[in-house]
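pipeline/complex-builder :: batch 7 item 3
reading input block
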Amino acid sequence: MTYTEWMREDRLPHIYCVGCGNGTVINCTLSAIDTMGWKKEDTIFVSGIGCSSRAPGYIITDSLHTTHGRALAFATGIKLANPALHVVVFTGDGDLAAIGGNHFIHACRRNIDLTVICMNNMIYGMTGGQGSPTTPVGAISTTTPYGSGEAAFDLGGLASAAGANYVARWTSYHVKELTHAIRAGLESPGFSFIEALVQCPTNYGRRNKFREVMDQIEYFKSHALLVQKAERLREEGTKIPDDMFIIGELVKRNRPALGVQR
Amino acid sequence: MQGNTACAEGALAAGCRFFGGYPITPSTEVAEQMALRLPKAGGVFIQMEDEIAGIAAVIGASWTGMRAMTATSGPGFSLMMENLGFAVMTETPCVVVNIQRGGPSTGQPTLSAQGDMLQCRFGSHGDYSVIALCPASVQEMYDLTAEAFNLADRFRVPVFIMADEIIGHMRERLIIPDNVVRTERKALKKGDLPFQAPDDLVPGFPVFGKGYGVHVTGLTHDERGYPCATSPTVHEELVKRLVAKVETARDTIASCDIVNPEATKVFISYGAPARAVQQLLHDLPRNDIGHLRLRVVWPFAESLLAMFPEAETFIVPEQNLGQVAREIDRHTDRPVIPVPKLGGALHSPAELAGVLEGLR
């Protein structure tokens, strides 16, 4: 099989804007799943509301497109009721970290056997570009017209602190690494959280000095700091610039997990 | 046995094997009994982080083909409203127990009320129809909860056990039947589209994990289940079908007790106030006083009113300010007298006799 065999082709064309990073993440996810040897009928995609959450509608398996922020709670019900199913959740920064923040914390705490892929575009894309919990300080959105004054959430750090077994962060630039991380997440028992920073040229990029799609992808490349290098810099006492962000495998452990098929 | 415990036992007897919920007075004993019993029955109990997550987990579990339930009270019921609309739109069978307490807001956590009857019917946004059963005894907490799963599976809607604190916490003798009748969820036929409705307006259910490859969304969808949120026709047809599948069956869903059909003064009751009416009829055995006791309040079967052809007045004692009386009033030209009671105490038979006196 190839990943294209997982696509629901009669649903095309999709809703994503030209230059959107979400397609890259869907591509990486299906490529990773394709290497797992899973059957389509044993694989379920779940999502909430937002651009990211439309992804399951383009995939051929059973899928549940739920209410805003609640995907993890629905997915918990599916996984506990039938642990033989592989349950993968697509979500976004608004869906997961704002309205769904409590479910995120508790799903990590339970360490329930789900793989959760967050397309973090740092903005509410579908509703037209409002600020989200991951909008960087100073960034312009329709609800932060003078620049965001709130600190952004570190989603990977949150997942790690709350107890997830596997946590990684990559970007739409790091296609191979992201695919490997999703594969590692799918293989790990317990809660796997993969954050993928993605460009939103329509609602983030054009308001924040990324005139071309590639400008933001170039930014992801130049401002990403591999976790191992960041640790080395910290040990040396070198200050990490504020505009750099950490990528890589942030957590890999084997805490007792819920919903793992015995 | 206590009403709440009987409710859990009825669910188990009906084959419920998933409970997701959040503790809230006065419903908590339902969750506690499920927590005790489900793991040993091969089922799943999970205490979620809030009621929103509780009903979400129940809906998720239902898509794996499991009979699934949650239990709550006022504040938790309010939190569930959005996801209940999702269950309606996606036609997900599930059972929601509401042991009603005094509201609005935190209100009277330990005292009885029936203030959520209209919220149950209309509380989520958009037009829809659901089924609500109202037990008036511990026996009915068992029997109606078991039957709720059949109705949920048959009509693919959320079915509510709209009980109250009095019935939930009352202790009575319970006769446990050897087995309960079980109507299975109709499976999706090969070749049918997942949301294509046959004559009974209820599509077959495509269980997750069986190769149907169904996309389920809360967005307005076509018969394939695909989002189609901008077509006026698709939306109108879908919503009208969701309402019609329940409303056209309201006479077959209806369940009630009728006392003295020749009566001129007819009490209509459900839940705890039914007990006061029953006591009144026991104390005052007169042929001119009748009683229509509803076991099913929603969908409201107005044909039941015609069972009392001589009725001159309908008297409706409720633990709210007249929520179901308002529904009855729009189906009859006879006077409807609400007997509202707030605060948690039950109507006394003397109070109801006083209403009869006032009619003279």
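note: Chain A has one domain: 16-252.
queue -> next item
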